[in-house]
Write a structure and sequence with these properties.
The chain contains 5 helices and 30 strands. The protein is mainly β and 433 residues long. The strands form 5 sheets. Strands 2, 3, 4, 7, 8, 9, 10, 11, 12, 13, 14, 15, 18 and 22 form a 14-stranded mixed beta sheet that branches. A 5-stranded antiparallel beta sheet has the order 1-23-21-20-19, with no helix packed on it. A 5-stranded antiparallel beta sheet has the order 5-6-30-29-28, with no helix packed on it.
Length: 433
């Protein structure tokens, strides 16, 4: 198949070429075939040596309590469910229903989705990475009666991170709001907050600002940033007093978050290192993130690598909505992975499972070894112990994936290297059984 596609590209529009040209190209391909992206099985790894360490949740809770009591922010705290109500009123930016750009998705899988507005579609400052939705948050598939999606974005220098809450309910416009992610610190009257990617942060380890994979579980939001899984509580949403300042934090009793209307404070994190640390089989990087509700609930992480061979890992969740530490019921201590597999797919950007198959977004076999980002990515699928195969081509630079159990659909989104033209979409496909 690869060889035929290469020949079609050579031949296309060049019917005057003789055998010297075409046959020479054929001989070159036979002697130097492009490497396959999935030549080996999805092989088990030793998960028991893969651990995360829970950070300090209590000090951040102390800061959150003090900031909300001080009145510098308008808090939409909801102890029973979440504080997303103000974002699900049809106000905010307006995206487009349906897929506004070509996606390369197999039409037999009923592709669907939505798009960002022009500014976010073409932004060179903000890049979308992760995707989750109400299908993760609740087994019912909706949240407050709405079909809600949350995307994560990193800023160009990773000093800021944001999420986007999208209401894509049927029969209404697709509307969304951006929220700055912040790190609270201090106590009492000196409590304040900063951007999660603030390079001056004294926190140990310092929070990472490269917002990557994201998963929504009940009222908790988990964000992967390389060597961390940061945790946010959706019962706490802050309205800023000012949206005209570039600063992040509280100054003279006025809160601001770099022109954003809203901010969401981190409550804690799990880590196996700090930003910039290397990736190993015992300390895998945590770049993508998805939720697995098959069997005992868990989070699934994967790691990007140019030529594959890195782990996809499953981490256990607890009934308290956090990760399950080795000392049951605590938010301190270590978390041990429950399963891990070595993934042969090249440049894995996302991973999700439906309980039978694992799905990976990564480079297509046709383009393995290439450097052009403006080519289709592929969604690969495999059962543990089997070699992955391509399920469908996908948009260029497809990132994180998310599985919707009730709908039987796989969700994803892509970033875009050539920002001026805009090719960003949020998509879903109905996967074959």
């Amino acid at each position: 198949m690869l060889l035929l596609r290469k020949l079609r590209r050579i031949w296309s529009g060049r019917t005057s070429l003789g055998c010297a040209s075409v046959c020479g190209a054929l001989a070159l391909l036979l002697v130097n075939p492009q490497p396959a992206a999935a030549a080996t099985p999805l092989a088990p790894m030793n998960a028991s040596v893969m651990k995360l360490t829970a950070g300090d949740f209590q000090s951040r809770w102390n800061a959150i309590d003090a900031i909300e009591a001080g009145g510098a922010v308008t808090s939409y705290y909801d102890p029973d469910q979440d504080a997303l109500g103000p974002l699900l009123t049809g106000n905010g930016r307006t995206g487009s229903r349906g897929l506004c750009h070509p996606t390369n998705l197999n039409s037999s899988y009923s592709p669907d989705g939505f798009c960002w507005d022009h500014d976010d579609d073409t932004s060179a400052d903000w890049t979308p990475q992760g995707l989750t939705g109400s299908h993760d948050a609740s087994p019912a598939g909706t949240w407050r009666g709405h079909y809600v999606y949350i995307a994560s974005w990193h800023f160009k220098d990773n000093t800021f991170a944001r999420i986007t809450v999208v209401d894509n309910s049927p029969g209404a416009p697709t509307t969304y709001n951006h929220i700055m992610l912040v790190d609270p610190y201090g106590s009492g009257g000196s409590a304040n907050f900063r951007a999660v990617g603030d390079p001056a942060s004294p926190a140990s380890p310092a929070p990472g600002g490269h917002a990557d994979g994201i998963s929504w579980y009940g009222n908790k939001l988990f964000l992967a940033t390389g060597h961390q899984i940061q945790v946010y509580d959706l019962r706490h949403l802050w309205k800023m007093k000012s949206n005209t300042s570039a600063s992040v934090g509280i100054q003279n009793g006025t809160s601001s978050a770099r022109y954003f209307n809203y901010a969401l404070p981190m409550i804690g994190m799990y880590s196996n290192g700090k930003p910039g640390d290397g990736c190993t089989d015992t300390n895998p990087c945590l770049t993508s993130l998805s939720l697995d509700r098959t069997g005992a609930d868990g989070l699934v992480t994967s790691e990007f690598n140019a030529t594959g061979g890195r782990p996809v890992v499953r981490w256990p969740l607890s009934s308290n909505g956090l990760l399950e530490t080795d000392t049951a019921g605590n938010s301190t201590g270590t978390v041990t992975a429950t399963a891990a597999y070595r993934v042969p797919v090249w440049k894995v950007q996302g991973a999700a499972t439906d309980g039978t198959y694992y799905y990976f977004s990564g480079v297509c076999p046709d383009y393995a070894g290439g450097t052009d980002d403006d080519v289709p990515y592929c969604v690969h699928r495999a059962k543990p112990g089997e070699a992955p195969h391509v399920l469908t081509e996908a948009p260029p630079l497809t990132q994180n994936l998310s599985w919707s159990p009730l709908a039987g659909r796989l969700w994803g989104l892509n970033e875009r290297a050539n920002y001026t033209s805009g090719k960003r979409v949020v998509f879903s496909v109905h996967t074959p059984s």
